[in-house]
Structure formats: C-alpha cells, structure tokens
Amino acid sequence: METQLIQSSPCSLPADQAGNVAGFLALWASRLAATSRTTYHQALGDFAAFIGEPSPEAATARLLAGGKGKAAALLIGYQAHLREVRGLAPNTVNVRVAAVRSMLAFANELDLIPWVVKVRNLKARVLKDTRGPGEIAAATMLRTATAGDSVKDKRDAALLAVLTYEGLRKAEALALDVQDVDLPAARLWILGKGHREKLPKSIAPETAAVLRVWLKARAAIAAGDALFVSTANHNYGGRMSGQSAHEVVRKAGEALGLHVTAHQLRHVSGTAAAEEGGLLGTMAHLRHTSPAVSQRYVDNLEDKAGAMARAVGTRIGRLVASPEAVAVA
User: What is the pTM of this model?
Assistant: First the structure.
C-alpha cells in the first residue's frame, strides 16, 4: 500500500529548478569520498525509481519540498521494500538508505531544509570468510603473471602484486597515478576508502620490483596519469576499468581451476598479516580504522569456533562412548 501511495505522485521539475537541483547534487557529490560517489549516485537513482521519479534530481526535489514527515515515510518505505520485497542484505540496504540520508543532511547543512531524517540502519552481522583462495594459489597466480613478457603480462603482474602483497582494494589500485609510486622511498600514496586525500603506505620490496618493471613497460604505451592503463584497442592507454581488473584476476584464478576475485586477494594479504602481526599488524597493513574488522582475520586464522566445536565434541563424545556414563533420574 505504501509503495502505491508513493508512486502515485511523481514530480515534474521546471527546467530552471532542475538545473538548481542538479547543481546541488553535484556539490553534494564533491563532498563525498571518491570511492562513495558512484555508489551513492546509483543508490539515489534506485530510490528515484522506487518512488516513481524519472531521475535523482526529481526525487531530490520531491523530498526537499515534501517536508520531514513525507521524506521519512518515503525512506522507511524504501528501506522496507529493499529488505522485504527485493530481499537485499542488511548491509546493502543500509548503504542505499545512507545515500539518501546523506543528501538530506547536506541540504540541511546548506539551510535548504530545517530538518534531518533519522532512519535507523538495519542490524547486520558480518559473516565473512576472510581467508581467500590461500597463499599458495595467490603465489601461483603471481608467479605465472610475472613470467610473461608482454606489456599486458607486466601490467597484470603489477596489479596482482598490489592486490596481494599490499592488500589494496580494487578501487584503490585503479585510482593510483604514476606520481603515487615512490620507488626510492618504497611507498605508495593511496586514496583509501572513506578518505578525501591520499596517504602513504610503505610497500614490500617484491611489490617495488614488479612495479619497476611495469613502469618501464608502461612508458611506451601511455602518457597520462593513470598507473594501471588499458591494453584493449578501444581504450588503449586509458585508465584501466574495474571490469578489466576483475577479468585479470578471474582469468588468473581460472587457470588454477579457482574462482578468485580482487577482494579475495586482499583477504589473502590480510590473513598473512594476521599470522605475522596479529590484530595491530592487520590493522596497519589493511589500513582498517576499526579493530573489529581486523579481528575477523585473526579469528578466522585461529578458527576459535572450530577449536571449541572439536573440544565440545570430544568432551561429550567420550560420554557417548562410555557405557559407565549413565544419567541418574
């Protein structure tokens, strides 16, 4: 019923108002971390489709003009729709709702509206296997890539190196520019998740060696800023896309009979860091701001739940196997 009510009154924006709203959204986007802009823009578009509006601009105008009560009702309805009708995971729902909340909070900051909407996040438990495909598989993927002699082979090897040795997220790796690589100081300048400026990260000698080879090969095919560039004809020398990076990792894993993603290579790196440096080492290596996130790597490495399951099984199993263990009523 709520969905029908919401979708029954779409907003038609005059051209001048549409321009103002588009300018507002552009200003809002400029305030977001680079890694969040695309996600939040897509979420706002999804919200617009849900309430029957043709664009994020029209949805924004409708929210700002409707008042706090209507905006809250729309957002709560959207949250329920995502979870109950579309069956999306709580974390996914929370990100999409957060995008709309963020836009409204920015409108309040600019005094465009005198209110904010406080729709609470859904409770979400993170159940994640952080071990990845394993160190041997990741090492084999790297060894195979570094054995190649083509420009593409050298690029792929460098990409796999920063994902595996350094634990970079795919988006972080693809955002790297040539000037972000400081080989004499053995470090990279990384635009991390949630950050607005690049921060330095020391890198392993193995990473530096592979990057040195790639930088030499790259100089012959590209003159732009991007560190990782495309070798495909339609975008030769341009910044490498996320889909292309995904395919590099997928094919490297497929050669071993495995399904591997870029983020799973980050898991391999994090698991190795957990074994070498525990919680604090994992936080530093993966640049986590929350110890709770890094703790997952330590917990999965130690498999405390598995150890307890075996201990309980042994304890009660002894009683099951013992005819002398008889319950007394």
Answer: 0.62
